[in-house]
Amino acid sequence: GIQVEQSPPDLILQEGANSTLRCNFSDSVNNLQWFHQNPWGQLINLFYIPSGTKQNGRLSATTVATERYSLLYISSSQTTDSGVYFCAVRSANQAGTALIFGKGTTLSVSS
Amino acid sequence: DSGVTQTPKHLITATGQRVTLRCSPRSGDLSVYWYQQSLDQGLQFLIQYYNGEERAKGNILERFSAQQFPDLHSELNLSSLELGDSALYFCASSVNPGWDVWPGLGYGYTFGSGTRLTVV
Question: Do A43 and B44 touch (CB under 8 A)?
């Protein structure tokens, strides 16, 4: 099945710093989403971005579908950005409708 | 409140036991998905039901089973529990079988808050 790899696995930042999280996937996708899991375990949708670029406040995401990767940018990070960021995809070439998650990037932002 | 209700929120049980996790989907949603999140395996897709029928199967162990009832709630049964089954179990629901996203209108699916299972 499709493989999803996220990097880096862990990231430690000072408040105000910028960061880039990467998601590589092994097959064409028709659905790619970024999630934030907060320290209480809740999964929060950030972006639906199978291709192109989107921005929402301090967060933005870019997916280059032809090269099979997506990037999540966090600018001027805040302590509330801490948590785990997941990339999840659905393969365009395989049967089934499961959304496959990467193992996540754990972000810790300190003040 | 996401609209998806998972019960119980926390569960502690001993090895060898059997437990049942319950998921009530958001009103109007026909599809239910189960995911397991463990420290070493990340978020793994287990199984999906759509309108009472099994739709897709992922890495679900033979000791685990699930079903979706006529009222559309779903139960995940975990038996002969092992220490490694300790995890956060998520349920998600959606109107359609896929993970619809409607630009400008929002997401066609939502995740519950999870059940944290600890096997001791």
Answer: no
pLDDT digits (tens, 9 = 90+) for A23-74: 999 999 988 999 999 888 888 889 989 999 999 999 999 999 999 999 999 9
- In terms of Cα–Cα distance, which of B88, B91, B82, B93 is closest to B120? B82
CB A73 within 8 A of CB A104: no
Inspect the interface and report whether the beta carbons of A41 and B101 lie closer than 8 Å: no
Are residues B32 and B48 in contact, defined by beta-carbon separation less than 8 angstroms?
Answer: yes
Taking CA–CA distances from A87, the nearest residue in chain B reads B43
Q: Which residue has the tokens 């287990």?
A: B46
Identify the contact set of chain A against chain B, taking CB-CB distances under 8 A: 31, 33, 41-43, 45, 48, 86, 88, 90, 96-104
- Mean pLDDT on B1-20: 93
Q: Give tens-digit pLDDT for B21-54.
A: 999 999 988 999 999 999 877 889 999 999 999 9
Does residue B88 or residue B40 have the better pLDDT?
B88
Q: Is B4 left (phi over 0), alpha (psi -120 to 50) or beta?
A: beta
- Say which amino acid occupies A64: V
| Nearest CB to B45 within list A31, A43, A98 | A98
Instruction: Give contacts of B33 with chain A, Cβ < 8 Å.
Output: 98-99
Map tokens 């679900």 to a residue: B60
List, in sequence order, every residue forming a beta bridge with A107; answer none if it has no partner: A11, A83
For residue range B46-83, list pLDDT tens digits in order: 999 999 999 888 889 999 999 999 999 999 999 999 99
